């Protein structure tokens, strides 16, 4: 997994050590704010209404749930950045370094937080991080990057690419009330025609008292009209009997009106050396119009009703 937590560590100490010096005239921070990730990297998959889940295509439900989870983590980062950059930066240097903060969320917040952004003109790259240290600390060595990223602006304001990562272990170490652990990461390329991105969880849990951890990867894209795709890869015990976990790789595609198709391969675990494939199509009401799999020898519905006529398998999945 790519990480960004050490990207500008040396710059943090320098910035914070000099931030208390004489205040200079602040240059325009608009370009720095515009370079940070925004809502265009979210997945805008069509969502179903109040129908029974059992009537919906399982691959649609799985993809919709993952979309909600991934969007939730990305939105938390975007909201934090947006909230901070609504204010003027508190410190700048040489027109290429900006600091917002430090601030605290109130008396019960054990930490103070700051946002640091630096532009490397030679590399045409913005490095940025949300950093924290225990409230009351006066040592610059105590600052820890809990979210960090890089952003590369494109030829126009509609283009760009970047990545960021969230270190929940670092957040929990600074705040004993946190129960989330692991890491979340996202990389993205944005153009006028749409977005292509990857996201994933590494050794993740939202309950540190539970033994289970999740490592999963996602690849997704969407065009300007709303049609898109998502690749999911994860481990699960499909037999739910405490035996070995199988690897499940699902490719989902959808049109702007909600019609879609999911093609899945299941392999390894108790299935090794075999691999099984299954496909499912749904209409704009998100209900199944066609399904088949070679594990249970099931074939139901009318394949001509599929929005995508042919199956499409993830490149990382083996042939069944």
Walkthrough of the structure:
The chain has 320 residues and is of the alpha+beta class. It has 2 domains: 180 residues, no CATH class; 94 residues, no CATH class. It is 16% helix and 39% strand. It has 4 helices and 15 strands. Strands 1-2-3-4-5-6-7-8-9-10-11-12-13-14-15 form a 15-stranded antiparallel sheet, with helices on both faces. β11 and β12 form a beta hairpin.
Summarize this, please?
By secondary structure, the protein is α+β, with helices and mostly antiparallel strands. The chain has four helices and 15 strands. It has helices at residues 9-18, 30-35, 58-85, 168-174, and strands at residues 91-93, 97-103, 111-120, 125-134, 144-153, 160-167, 181-191, 194-205, 214-223, 228-236, 246-254, 260-267, 275-282, 288-293, 298-301.
Q: Provide the number of structural domains.
A: 2
Dominant shape: globular
Mind telling me the C-alpha Rg?
23 Å
> Could you tell me the mean pLDDT?
83
Q: SSE string, helix = H, strand = E? A: HHHEEEEEEHEEEEEEEEE
Helix content: 10-25%
Terminal residue distance: 28 Å
Q: Got a strand count?
A: 15
Q: Which strand order spans the largest sheet, edge to edge or round the barrel?
A: 1-2-3-4-5-6-7-8-9-10-11-12-13-14-15
Number of helices: 4
- Helix/strand/pairing category: alpha+beta
* Biggest sheet layout: 15 strands, antiparallel
Low-pLDDT runs of 5+ residues are 1-27, 49-54
What portion of residues belong to β-strands?
Answer: 35-45%
């Amino acid at each position: 997994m790519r990480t960004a937590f050490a990207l500008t560590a040396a710059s943090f100490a320098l910035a914070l050590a000099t931030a208390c010096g004489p205040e200079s005239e602040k240059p325009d921070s608009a370009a720095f704010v515009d370079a940070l990730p925004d809502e265009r990297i979210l997945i805008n998959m069509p969502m179903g209404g109040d129908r029974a889940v059992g009537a919906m295509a399982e691959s649609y439900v799985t993809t919709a749930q993952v979309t909600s989870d991934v969007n939730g983590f990305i939105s938390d980062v975007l909201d934090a950045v947006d909230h901070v950059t609504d204010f003027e930066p508190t410190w700048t240097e040489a027109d290429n370094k900006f600091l917002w903060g430090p601030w605290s969320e109130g008396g019960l917040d054990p930490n103070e937080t700051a946002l640091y952004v630096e532009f490397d003109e030679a590399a045409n790259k913005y490095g940025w991080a949300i950093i924290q240290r225990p409230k009351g600390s006066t040592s610059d060595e105590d600052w820890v990057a809990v979210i960090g990223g890089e952003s590369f602006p494109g030829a126009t304001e509609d283009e760009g690419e970047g990545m960021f990562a969230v270190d929940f272990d670092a957040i929990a170490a600074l705040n004993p009330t946190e129960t989330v652990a692991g890491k979340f990461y996202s990389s993205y390329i944005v153009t006028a025609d749409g977005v292509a991105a990857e996201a994933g969880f590494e050794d993740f849990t939202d309950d540190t008292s539970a033994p289970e951890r999740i490592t999963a990867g996602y690849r997704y894209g969407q065009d300007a009209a709303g049609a898109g795709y998502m690749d999911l890869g994860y481990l699960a015990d499909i037999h739910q009997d405490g035996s070995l976990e199988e690897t499940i790789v699902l490719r989902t595609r959808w049109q702007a009106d909600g019609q879609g198709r999911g093609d899945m391969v299941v392999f390894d675990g108790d299935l090794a050396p075999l691999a099984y494939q299954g496909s499912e199509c749904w209409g704009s009401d998100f209900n199944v119009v066609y399904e088949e799999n070679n594990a249970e020898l099931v074939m139901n519905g009318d394949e001509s009703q599929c929005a995508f006529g042919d199956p499409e398998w993830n490149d990382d999945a083996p042939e069944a």
